[in-house]
Amino acid sequence: AVREAGRVLAPSQYTVNLSAGTFTLVASPTGTITADVQGHTTGAGYKTDAVDLMRIIATIVESPTTFDNASFTALSGRGPCGFYANASITGLEVIGQLAATIGACS
Fold it and tell me: From residue 17, how far is each of 9, 14, 59 by CA, in Å?
């Protein structure tokens, strides 16, 4: 759901671009905008495992050859997670927060 000032907006009040992972409001907002979203999907469903999400983000922000894939594999299977950001945040900061949720760093 997309909300403005806590009120759920009707689907006619925004457009969705799934391939870009964005939504666009039809009119300028007058309140804070929030949204319930799901993350990366491979076509077989959304990824919810913290390690899967960290690996995907790491691949986007860095070359896959610059991180230790074995370390990600060793942490896999810790269960689903959620993530909330209330401000602009970098991919590396997201990885750090996800890692902290599964006890991979302090």
Answer: 16, 10, 22
What integer best gives the mean pLDDT of the chain?
83
Over residues 40-79, the pLDDT tens digits come to 777 777 888 888 888 888 888 776 667 777 877 888 777 7
Give the separation between CA 15 and CA 23, rounded to whole angstroms. Answer: 5
In 3D, which of 74, 44, 69, 37 has the Cα closest to residue 56?
Answer: 69
In which residue are the tokens 């922000």 written?
Answer: 61
3-state secondary structure of 72: helix
**Could you say which DSSP state residue 9 is in?**
P
Question: If you search the block for the tokens 């894939």, which residue do you land on?
Answer: 69
Q: What is the DSSP letter of 67?
A: S
Virtual torsion, Cα 22, 7, 30, 39, nearest 10 deg: -20
pTM of the complete model: 0.61
Residue linked to tokens 């997309």: 2
Go through 28-38 and write b for each residue having 16 or more CB atoms within 10 A of its CB, e for each that does not.
eeeeeeeeeee
